[in-house]
Automatic annotation (TrEMBL):
This is Class I poly(R)-hydroxyalkanoic acid synthase. The lineage of its organism: Bacteria, Pseudomonadati, Pseudomonadota, Alphaproteobacteria, Acetobacterales. GO terms for cellular component: cytoplasm. Residues 170-341 form the Poly-beta-hydroxybutyrate polymerase N-terminal domain. The gene is phaC. GO terms for biological process: poly-hydroxybutyrate biosynthetic process. Residues 1-39, 48-60 have a biased composition (Low complexity). It comes from Muricoccus nepalensis.
Amino acid sequence: MAVAASSPVPAAAPGKVARPAAEVSKPPAAAPAEAAAPEAKPEPAAPQPAAAAPDPAAAKGVPALAEAPNFRLPDPAVVSRTMADVAERGQRLVAEFLRRQGQGDGRPATDPLNIGGAFLEMTTRLMSNPARLVQAQIGFWQDYLTLWQNTARRIMGGQASPVIAERRGDKRFKDDAWRENEVFDFIKQSYLLSSRYFTNVVHGAEGLPPKTAQKVDFYTRQFVDAMSPTNFWMTNPEVLRKTAETGGENLLKGLSNLLSDLERGHGKLRINMTDESKFKIGENIAVTPGKVVYRNALMELIQYTPTNDKVLKRPLLILPPWINKFYILDLRPKNSFVRWAVSQGHTVFVCSWVNPDESLAEMGFDDYMRLGPYAALDAIEQATGERQVNAIGYCLGGTLLASTLAHMAKTGDDRVASATFFTTMLDFEEAGELGVFIDEEQLQAIEAKMSQRGFLEGSEMADTFNMLRANDLIWSFVVQNYLLGQEPFPFDLLFWNGDSTRMPAKMHSFYLRRMYQQNDLVKPGGIELDGVSLDLRDVKLPTYVLATREDHIAPWKSSYRATGLFSGPVRFVLAASGHIAGVVNSPDSGKYSHWVNEGPSPQQPGDWFEAATELAGSWWPDWQRWVVAQDRTMVPARQPGEGALPALEDAPGSYVKVMAGD
């Protein structure tokens, strides 16, 4: 990859001037794909002068940034101040690193991700069929020769179709220079050809076990993404232009940003994705009015203030995942599912999970069941007088909800009248790319870390999720923060994404081993919680299953398998976009469509989708119609704290404000 990105380029023909990158207008920075605002169209490139003298740099195929009209020399005072600051902060970081090394056991981690064995097995398979490898190499060099010829033709003033094009929606190459400048077009296509070659070689290794093949494919893509020419200042036209315009001050600022991120991570790089200073929980994020009406060691129960005189008789209980914080469903008033549900007549209760420390290391999955949904149901009955509720589980919260429903079915507890699952996996046979991190070697490494601290660090979970969308959640910020030297833009979704939570050791080990690795939840009697063997087939109440088409955490076809696990009526709905944006999609946003199928659910998800109807806009109104149809009875609105449970404090409570670093 690196060879392709730095390959020599064809020389320009005499008298032909290569267009400098500085002459291409700068498009706006893009947010990550999950939550990006619509991009503004870049302005057209500035026209070439009618009569330009030949440029020696251009004759060698190098963009003539030094001759660009906006080029200026760096300010010596700025350089001096920045380098002095870098030296001082760098010295502190090195001292901190050495201190931490001295506290370790002296044994380096040899291969914590168990990558070496997977690639060794792939290499062995490839060597068993050398003819296939030679064929791939010949095809690669033929394409590369065509690229050279096309680039030479363009430099001579001709036209040539691209040998390879980036995939649709690839924002890395949004700058006009990647198409209009022959040099950068060559660099881009050279990289794309190399990427395709590596990917084809990996896929050509026959006979690999599925898990090994998945791991090799995943880390090959990680390498390919890391080697993109957009990630290096010398091969990124936008960065070169910025460097010319600022006299290199962008790189100095980027170095300062890099040091700041290392300081935030105490020596480990913690990329700053948003301006965290612009957000404060309870003031401009998670602001739907309500009260904490119950608290135990694992959760605070929030009851939200009604906005209507009459409300539905059945309260609504929401179980969010404890891998992240609940306010993903209450970011801002305009995209808050909580606020919208309140406006639709629901008495909304939300479990706000504690951010655990070492004192909760022995909390298990059954503790989360007892102190989560069971405790919440008891509290809701005290607060409202109602036994039955409608329940929602989001992601891991949905896995807990399904487990609890199976437990309740065995014990004859009917307090949940209907259940909704947001992007939830119950059958983990095809767990998507998260399965790359679940093998015996990696589980043992995770458990060893948790045994020392009593929990898994929230940052480690966040790093795993970010790797699933490396271009959007890692490399785009490397370019923006460190190469362009820009300050992060304030973005509520990215603030939430960075507000990571810890995982208790006992619970997390159980979840990874029994759910992900062994897939025991779908086996009748495969899991026992609080002395009761679970069988999802015992769940007979109405269920609503929402999946999202581009979900990289809970693949929609895996979520669809819930339709064959429960014995009651199931409505499956597929939303566009991903794990977060597909769920947090207010009807007012006008974004993303959804698919419904009014017929019986076939066994295969592809058959369901083939017969489904696509509807514009949010799925929220569809869910509202479904849940209201379960029971339309209305009662006078209930105010938090006016029932048998007094208000303890204002929403969003205290637990949600505990940061992973606290």
